[in-house]
Design goal:
10 strands; 255 residues; two-stranded antiparallel sheet
Length: 255
Amino acid sequence: MVSSPKLLKRSDGSTLAYDRLAGAGADAPRVVFLHGLMSDRTGTKAKVLWEHCRAKGYGFVRFDMFGHGDSSGRFEDGSVSQWTEDALAILDTVASGPQILIGSSMGGWVMIKAALARTERIKGLIGIAPAPDFTEGMWASFSADQQATLREKGVLELPSEYDDQPYRISLGLIEDGRKNLVMGGEIALTCPMRLLQGQRDESVPWETSLRLADKISGDAVEIILIKDGDHRLSRPQDLERLCATLDELMTKVNG
């Protein structure tokens, strides 16, 4: 982890670890990065965005959601509701002024929920293989035995493609996810949105980004499909594309 992160203390006693770049220009949009499931603020994309924003003079905040990284809590006690509350706490107390949100995978779901709750401050969105409503797809992918285990024990361990530690998926995560679904109807967002999606993504079907774009009420949505891209989109060319997309969106919303 990054040494000596700042800590945001919540009213319930939990803490959120974060790093912040002040940036230049009080009224210019700034950036908040929302990491994916079982990732944290020190992942490759977060690190590259940190250095890019530092070089460009953009304000930037990256943080660990509840149960991730240096923040408090157990991962299996987390939920989409909790992680959305975390994002709103960061927006309300750490990241001042107008913002561009960047959400990776699960963070793309949180990004949408946070943008809907703070529409007046969110000026742009970038989804990296966004995974809205992923808990429904996860539940449907479980075998009957896995579903039974989850109902009986409350937690199901799944191997991770990206880490030695298994995902400990809780029944609470699945049930809470159903309270936070966004893909069932129109999503009332009109700010510019960019969706970066690999077509060799084995975790989130690339068609998800097409369906998400169709649900967004505004027209300022662009989808960038990367034919040979995987779920992580962390190759040098993917990271270069991400930074260029941020620059383009920053110019647009500043325009």
